[in-house]
Design goal:
single chain; about 280 residues; alpha/beta; 60s Ribosomal Protein L30, Chain: A; Alpha/beta knot; 2 domains; seven-stranded parallel sheet; five-stranded mixed sheet
Amino acid sequence: MLISITDLSDPRIRDFTQLKDVNLRKSFEAEHGLYLAESFSVIERALAAGHRPRSVLTNRHWIGRLHDILGVDAANLPIFVADEQLLTELTGFRMHRGAIAAMERPDLPSLQKVLKGSRAVLILEDLVDHTNVGAAIRSAAAMGFDAVLTSPNCADPLYRRAVRVSMGTVFSLPWTRIDAWPDTSCLKEKGFMVAGLALSPTAVLLPDFCASLSTKVQAGENPKVALVLGTEGPGMTKRALNSCDLLVKIPLSHGVDSLNVAAAGAVACYGVIQALKGTPARQ
């Protein structure tokens, strides 16, 4: 159902008119239960995960492609069509990714459900940058982690930028919030070793940690790992550090003292997954 839009004050597109204000966007999404999926590839992944679109914003150039993606849903779904100049004014950038869909936000699964059958989970503690959240989730999915957990104060994985940077992997990789954080008893009860990635003098090197995991696997054990990433700069909170079973750090060269949190997460996720296969990655 195509609807032409010529005025940004049109109340029918209120799902899209708060895009530039992060704080207002977050409260608006929470109140009305929606999130924004930007680009055809992200929309396709959201639909494949069973998420339901509420409306779509695009320009006429992309209508045919959009109909192919939406299928029968396109007939009854409001598809708002605006010219490129108006879309740029609304979003703050030239919308070359095809479309933005307002999706109904699904209920988060329980922690018990997410942990069931998992051997490797990534915990994001208080990451405030949506780009880092999206990149960390994408890395976790790519490296073979089973799930992602976020602390109550972590940026929303379903915020527009986080979804875009994750390339929609936030829809395919199970995730939920761990409300009791930094209480890790629920993880330890299920046999998870909680390892915090931290630049601490007491931290073991990632290759040594991975080697110990691989040895356990080769001995017939089935270790489970919950890897914790702290926020950019300050790192993990003191309470979270104290709740970990051990701390792990990545050995660095050429005078580099730290990595971006998402990059560090990718390196650590790869090492952990290889170790859980019994073949730790060469360092």
